[in-house]
Amino acid sequence: MAEIYERWVAAHGVILATPTNWYHTSSSMKLMIDRLVCADGGNPDPTTTRGKDAEKAKEIELAGWPFPKHLKDRVYGLVVHGDVAGVEETRYALSDWLDWMGLIDAGFQARLDRYIGYYKPYATSHEELDRDTAVQEEVRNVARAVAGAVRDVRAGKLARPDAKLDRPRPK
Questions:
Q1: Are strands 111-115 and 75-82 parallel, antiparallel or unpaired?
Q2: What are the pLDDT digits (tens) for 18-39?
Q3: What is the DSSP letter of 83?
C-alpha cells in the first residue's frame, strides 16, 4: 500500500476501474479504499507519531488538527462494470467517496457504469468485451475526460466549485 499511496500523492488524476461483485467493488478495491483513510483528514505530519504509535496518534488528534484532505483537487474518472446487477450503485458509492475526499469529477463521460455480457456465461465474458467496441470507446472517453480535466486544473481553468467554502464539520 505504501507504493500505491505514493502514486496517489504524485498523481494529478486517477481512474478507478472495478468489477461489481454483489453490488460492491472488488475486495482489492475496498482494501485500497480502507487503507486510504489516512488521506482523508489524517495526521498532517506523520513524522510526529514516529511510525505507528497509536497512543501518540490519538494524543495528537485529540489535541486538534485541521483534518487535511491530502488528495484533494486531483481529478478522477470511474469505470465500473458487471454482468448482472449493481453497477450503478457501485459507481455512486465510489463517486461519493472520491467527492468526500475532495477530488474533482472530470464530468459525465468520466463516470462509466456498464454491463458486459449481461446474463451471459463467465466463461465467454472476455469475448463479449472484445465484441463491445462501444464500451471500449467509452472507457477511452473516461481517460480523455480525465486528461482534459487535469490539463484544465493545471492551467487554473477548473477547480472544485466549493473549494473556498469552510467545512463546519471537517471530520
A1: parallel
A2: 999 989 999 999 999 988 877 7
A3: S
DSSP string spanning 21-34?
Answer: BTTB--HHHHHHHH
Q: Which alpha helices (H) appear in 11-132, and where do they start and end?
A: 27-35, 54-63, 87-100, 125-131
pTM: 0.87
Beta bridge partners of 19: 81
Contact status, residue 79 vs residue 17, Cβ threshold 8 Å: yes
Q: Are 124 and 156 in contact (CB under 8 A)?
A: no
- Residue appearing with cell numbers 487535511: 68
The dihedrals phi and psi of 22, each to the nearest 5 degrees, come to: 50, 55
**Cβ contacts of residue 169 below 8 Å, gap of 6+?**
none
